[in-house]
Design a protein that fits this description.
The protein has about 350 residues and is an all-alpha fold. The chain has one domain. Helices cover about 75% and strands about 0% of the residues. The radius of gyration is 21 Å and the shape is globular. The N and C termini lie far apart (about 70 Å). This is Glucose-6-phosphatase. One of its GO terms (cellular component) is endoplasmic reticulum membrane.
C-alpha cells in the first residue's frame, strides 16, 4: 500500500499546485459533499418538490453513512494528512502540501464518506429527475443531462477530498462506486409510511449493532481510537479537530435522523398538502430554521452528553422540514385565503 499511498500524495501535491488559486471553490465543494449537506440542504429542497424523493434522500443518506462507518472500522484506511508524517517516507523530500480547516477528520479514511454519501444521495435525485424529464419529453438526450451532472458532481467532490488531504484517490473511487450501488439498491426500498415502531427499531438497531461491533473489535485487541490519535498528532491546527467529525458522531447523526423520520410520519402520516407557492415559502422558512439548528452550540464535555444532544439535534431535522414549518405555512396561507 505504500506505493499506492505515495502516488496519492503526489496527485494531491499536483492538485494543490494547479488548483490552489481556486481553493475556495474546492472547499465549498467538499462541504457540499459532507453528509450534513444531505440532511440540511438536499433533503429539504427535494422534499418540497417531491415528498417521496425527499424521504428517500433522508433514508438513503442515513443508511449509506452508517454503512460507511462500519466499513471504515473494518478497513482501517489511512488519511493523507497523517500518513505523510507516519510513513517516514518523506523525511528528506517533504511534499509541498498544506492542510485546511476541513482536512482533519478523525475517523479512518477508507472508503470516503463524502464520496459514498454523495454517490448514494445524488443518485436518488438525478434518477428521479431523469425519469421525470423522460416522462414529459420522451427525449433520451434531455433525460441524460441529470446523469452527466451526477458524474460531474462525484468528480468535483472527489477531487476536493484529495485536494484538502482528507483522502487518497483510491478511497474516493471506492466511496463513489459503493455510493452508486447503494443509491440504486436503496432507492427502491424506501419504508415510506411505515409505523413509528419500525423507525424506532431501525434507529436503535443500527445504534446497538454498531456499538456491539465496535466493542467486539476492541475485544479482539483492535484499537479503534488509533485514527483519532493520529489526527490530533498531525493536524496543523488543534482547533480543526472537531468532535462532530468522530465516527460516534456519525452514528448518532444517522440514528437520530431515522428516529426523527419516524416521528415526523407519525405526527403527520402523509405530510401537508400545499400548492407550489406555499412550498416555496416553506423552503425559505426551513432554510432559516435549519441554519439555526445546525449552528446550535453543544457542550463537548462530557462527551456522552454531546453525543446524546447530537442525536436529538438530528432527530429534530425531519420534524422541522416535514411537520412544523409546513404546518405553520398551511395555517398562515389558509387564514389569508379565508380572509
Amino acid at each position: 500500500m505504500d506505493e499506492i499511498h505515495t502516488q496519492g500524495i503526489l496527485i494531491a501535491e499536483t492538485l494543490q499546485e494547479k488548483l490552489m488559486s481556486h481553493k475556495h471553490f474546492w472547499l465549498v465543494a467538499t462541504h457540499c459533499g459532507d453528509p450534513n449537506a444531505a440532511f440540511f440542504l438536499v433533503f429539504p429542497f427535494t422534499y418540497f418538490i417531491s415528498r417521496r424523493t425527499g424521504v428517500t434522500v433522508l433514508w438513503v443518506a442515513a443508511l449509506s453513512e452508517w454503512l460507511n462507518l462500519v466499513l471504515k472500522w473494518m478497513l482501517f484506511g489511512e488519511r493523507p494528512f497523517w500518513w505523510i508524517g507516519e510513513s517516514r517516507l518523506f523525511v528528506n523530500n517533504e511534499p509541498n502540501v498544506q492542510q485546511f480547516s476541513a482536512t482533519c477528520e478523525t475517523g479512518p479514511g477508507s472508503p470516503s464518506g463524502h464520496a459514498m454519501v454523495t454517490g448514494a444521495v445524488w443518485w436518488v435525485v438525478v434518477s428521479s429527475l431523469g425519469s421525470f424529464l423522460y416522462s414529459r419529453t420522451h427525449s433520451v438526450a434531455l433525460s441524460a443531462l441529470p446523469y452527466l451532472f451526477y458524474v460531474l458532481m462525484l468528480m468535483v467532490v472527489g477531487i476536493s477530498r484529495i485536494f484538502i488531504l482528507a483522502h487518497f484517490p483510491h478511497q474516493v473511487v471506492a466511496g463513489s462506486v459503493t455510493g452508486l450501488i447503494l443509491g440504486v439498491i436503496l432507492s427502491h426500498r424506501v419504508p415510506d409510511g411505515r409505523p413509528l415502531l419500525f423507525y424506532f427499531t431501525s434507529s436503535m438497531g443500527l445504534l446497538i449493532s454498531a456499538l456491539i461491533f465496535h466493542a467486539g473489535l476492541k475485544q479482539l485487541g483492535l484499537d479503534l481510537s488509533w485514527s483519532t490519535a493520529l489526527a490530533k498528532k498531525w493536524c496543523s491546527h488543534a482547533e480543526w479537530i472537531r468532535l462532530d467529525s468522530t465516527p460516534i458522531s456519525s452514528l448518532c447523526r444517522d440514528c437520530g435522523i431515522l428516529l426523527g423520520l419516524g416521528l415526523a410520519q407519525y405526527w403527520k402520516p402523509r405530510g401537508w398538502s400545499l400548492p407550489w407557492a406555499p412550498r416555496a415559502l416553506c423552503v425559505a422558512f426551513v432554510s432559516m430554521a435549519l441554519y439555526h439548528v445546525n449552528r446550535l452550540p453543544l457542550p463537548v464535555r462530557p462527551q456522552v452528553l454531546f453525543y446524546i444532544l447530537y442525536f436529538v439535534k438530528f432527530a429534530i431535522v425531519p420534524q422541522v422540514v416535514m411537520v412544523l414549518v409546513p404546518g405553520l405555512v398551511h395555517l398562515l396561507t389558509r387564514k389569508k385565503k379565508n380572509d
